[in-house]
Amino acid sequence: MNVTSNSRQRYLTTVLYFFTTGFITASLAAQERSTDTSLASETLATTEAEAPELTEEAEKSIDRGLKFLIATQNKDGSWSSKDGEKEGGYAIAGTSLGLMAFMVEGHFPGFGKYGKSLDRAKNYLLKRSKDSPTGAMGVKMYEIGLFTIAMSELWGMTSDPADNKVIQESLERVVQIILRSQSPLGGWRYAPRPDSGQDTSVTAMVFVSLASAREAGVLVPTETIERLTGYLRDQAFDERRGGFGYQGKGYTIACTAGGVYAAQLAGNRDTEWVSAALNTLENDPKMFSRKDNGHFYYSHYYAMQAMVQAGEERYANWYPKIRDSLISLQQPNGSWQENPQDYPHKTPMAIIILGTPNRYIPVYQR
């Protein structure tokens, strides 16, 4: 596998790109206003549609969420469910998402006020990987997928250059596990084996992680992507409803959001079936209801990024709604946890969604 050494450059380029683009757009709009009021009005409307920004309230919400994560980090550097007996507290998933929540705000291990805490989280994940004979860390494919995203986005972004080799090795090893675990039909299930079957929920998470690894320079075979597309299109997509089922054709909000995002990352953005699934999400009355959408944070984690992939108009229409919804759902302690036994994904996923306008993490860019 060929892992490039320009992750930090990708980050800096992203920041410079959005700063420069915003400056040029503003300059051009100012020139147009001086010559053509009508054209300037259209330009302003388009700019507003294309670039939803973080509000002051959203920034404060994110900051409170990050402070909650710092306050609840375990001594070993991980984040996990308070129910430690439940699948090991989902510490691989919680720690991977926790790191990404900080990275989406531009915080990385070894840098700034959160540097030491993020170093501990990074070291926890690397130790778990090193201690595993296979690299699978004895966890399910959900956690393997999230670990892969964290490693992909972390590589080259820490203060210690010596980390790069260790992160690279961990990333390459876990990607090989994922590639070997794809089922003949093209999906993935809980166990890291090709004979364990497939479902759309696990498949979406795992393929997003492969897309992230590919952004970091890891080779993902074309055959893997084609088989994933085949699974989503032929096994999971329901023509009548315009969505994706959990196992087989059908519809759930979470599987449709995850299936759309995975399909887009696999190169199917402009297909009719992906467009139909996006339309279904946009018109589902349960989508923004915490009461009626049982997998609220999980489904919106995917849906937000699917709207980014779908283009600026859809993104601009979607982001303010989920932003305001998440701000209203935040708990007094800064978290989005609804009880102490919750899975450790809700708070970091909420932060990642709120921080979407930053576009610091490559897999969350279009």
Account of the 3D structure:
By secondary structure, this protein is mostly helical. The protein has 14 helices and 2 strands; from the N terminus they run αααααααααββααααα. It has a single domain (58-364), classed as Glycosyltransferase, CATH 1.50.10.20. Helices cover 60% and strands 1% of the residues. A two-stranded antiparallel sheet has the order 1-2. Helix 12 packs antiparallel against helix 13 (312-329) and helix 12 (296-310) runs parallel beside helix 14 (346-354). The longest helix has 29 residues, at 7-35. 46% of the residues are buried. Mean pLDDT is 87; it is low at 1-48.
- Determine the fraction of residues in helical runs and give it as a percent range: 55-70%
- Sequence of strands across the biggest β-sheet: 1-2
Number of strands: 2
The figure for the number of domains is: 1
Shape label: globular
User: Would you tell me the overall average pLDDT?
Assistant: 87
Count of separate DSSP helical elements: 14
The sequence of SSEs as H and E is HHHHHHHHHEEHHHHH
Main β-sheet, in a few words? Answer: 2 strands, antiparallel
Ends distance: 24 Å
Strand content: under 5%
Radius of gyration: 20 Å
Give the CATH architecture: Alpha/alpha barrel
What is the CATH third-level topology name? Glycosyltransferase
- CATH class category: Mainly Alpha
Structural class: mainly alpha
Unreliable stretches, pLDDT < 50, 5 or more residues? 1-48
Brief summary:
With 366 residues, the protein is an all-alpha fold.
